[in-house]
Every structure is written in structure tokens, then in C-alpha cells.
Amino acid sequence: MSKRIAIVEDDPAIRENYASALQKQGYDVLTYSSRPEAEQAFMQRLPDLAVVDIGLNEEIDGGFMLCQQLRSLSKTLPIIFFTARDNDYDTICGLRMGADDYLTKDISLPHLLARIAALFRRTELLNQPQVATDLIQSGALLMDSNRMTVSWDNHPIELTVTEFWMLHAIAKYAGHVKSRQQLMDESKMVVDDTTITSHIKRIRKKFMQLDASFDRIETVYGMGYRWKSS
């Protein structure tokens, strides 16, 4: 069964161009030109992945609003911001709202297709049989890479697909420093340092909402990040 991708883009030429390219890759593509139109459709049925522009018609931040609605409906649905707005502020805002990726429209079509395929490969791990090596336990942390679930002191923590694999990369080898490049490799991302920092901050914040004293994710300046085992 082909994956359903939703494209939310107000420019008809861009919308149809990418829809056609994705359909040629075998995806089932749904297109929407506005936030209200997309929200109404998503309340009926969620796609398997959403590609969202930030500015939608008169709504300068319509894509951000849509992302928040999608995250309220699904914690793990892959969301990609695909926008002409190339600045750190918008990138950080998008990732804080729970997007898995932030791409600018000047990237190549093969690059976009590769990022979509990478997100789908990660979500497909949910359907694989569980084996003991899928589990990571370190103190109060328990991660199941098959079901992509995380708990801290037996309380579940909802992470996006990208957040999960970034945490997995450092928790799997507790005490070892993981460089930003290694985090990108593990989570199938190609981003700048600011984006990685935003993801790490968001992960920390989710743990601290449960445990105000949480300090297991350590920044090793000039090197990367590590999970402190105790």
C-alpha cells in the first residue's frame, strides 16, 4: 500500500510540480492550498507524512499553526517544513513546534525525495518484530527502538521521529560523546549546528517537564553531546 503524502502549499505551480514528482515515486499525494482546507482534511484522516509551507496565502505563519494542530493529532507523524524562508528564527520556531525537518525551496528535488524516504524508513521500524536489542535502558530511561517509545521513570515521553533517533544515538552509548555529525548520521538529517541544538533543547525540555532535576543530556563544548549514565 502506497504512502500518503500531504502537500500544503499556496503556490499552485510549486504544489503541482512536487505532487507530480512524488507521484512518480509511487506515493499517493494529496494537495491543499490553505490551512483551513488542510485542517479539515486532517481531522478526517491523517496522511503518512506532511510537507508544509510556512506562509499560506494571507497567513504569514499558517504553516506553524497547522504543524501545531498535526502534532496534537499525532506525536509521531513525520512533518517537513518546506519553505522559501531561510533564517535561523523560522528554523528554530519550526523545530520547536515539533517538525522533523526544515528544508528550503532551493534544495534539489532528489534531496527532498531522499529526506522523505529517510523519514519513512525510520517510521517503518515501528512495524518490525521486537528483539532484545531494540531496548535501551539506562537508569530511569527506557527506549524501544522498534515501537519508537520513550519513558522516564515509567512515564511516557512523546518525541518526534527525529527527536527519538537523536536521543537514541546518544543514549545507546551512554558516557560516549556523539559529535553533531554522528547525530546527523544516526537521525538521517543534514542540518546546521543551530538545528541540532534546537532539537536537543526540545528533548531536554520534554524530560524536564516530568523531572525538573533532569540533567542526563550533557553538552560537551566543541565536541558534541553525551548521555550521562548516572
From TrEMBL:
<dbReference type="GO" id="GO:0000976">
    <property type="term" value="F:transcription cis-regulatory region binding"/>
</dbReference>
<dbReference type="GO" id="GO:0005829">
    <property type="term" value="C:cytosol"/>
</dbReference>
<feature type="modified residue" description="4-aspartylphosphate">
    <location>
        <position position="53"/>
    </location>
</feature>
<keyword id="KW-0597">Phosphoprotein</keyword>
<keyword id="KW-0238">DNA-binding</keyword>
<protein>
    <submittedName>
        <fullName>Transcriptional regulatory protein ChvI</fullName>
    </submittedName>
</protein>
<keyword id="KW-0902">Two-component regulatory system</keyword>
<dbReference type="InterPro" id="IPR001867">
    <property type="entry name" value="OmpR/PhoB-type_DNA-bd"/>
</dbReference>
<dbReference type="Pfam" id="PF00486">
    <property type="entry name" value="Trans_reg_C"/>
</dbReference>
<dbReference type="InterPro" id="IPR001789">
    <property type="entry name" value="Sig_transdc_resp-reg_receiver"/>
</dbReference>
<dbReference type="InterPro" id="IPR039420">
    <property type="entry name" value="WalR-like"/>
</dbReference>
<feature type="DNA-binding region" description="OmpR/PhoB-type">
    <location>
        <begin position="133"/>
        <end position="229"/>
    </location>
</feature>
<dbReference type="GO" id="GO:0006355">
    <property type="term" value="P:regulation of DNA-templated transcription"/>
</dbReference>
<feature type="domain" description="OmpR/PhoB-type">
    <location>
        <begin position="133"/>
        <end position="229"/>
    </location>
</feature>
<dbReference type="InterPro" id="IPR036388">
    <property type="entry name" value="WH-like_DNA-bd_sf"/>
</dbReference>
<keyword id="KW-0804">Transcription</keyword>
<feature type="domain" description="Response regulatory">
    <location>
        <begin position="4"/>
        <end position="120"/>
    </location>
</feature>
<keyword id="KW-0805">Transcription regulation</keyword>
<dbReference type="InterPro" id="IPR011006">
    <property type="entry name" value="CheY-like_superfamily"/>
</dbReference>
<dbReference type="Pfam" id="PF00072">
    <property type="entry name" value="Response_reg"/>
</dbReference>
<dbReference type="GO" id="GO:0000156">
    <property type="term" value="F:phosphorelay response regulator activity"/>
</dbReference>
<dbReference type="InterPro" id="IPR022305">
    <property type="entry name" value="Response_regulator"/>
</dbReference>
<dbReference type="GO" id="GO:0032993">
    <property type="term" value="C:protein-DNA complex"/>
</dbReference>
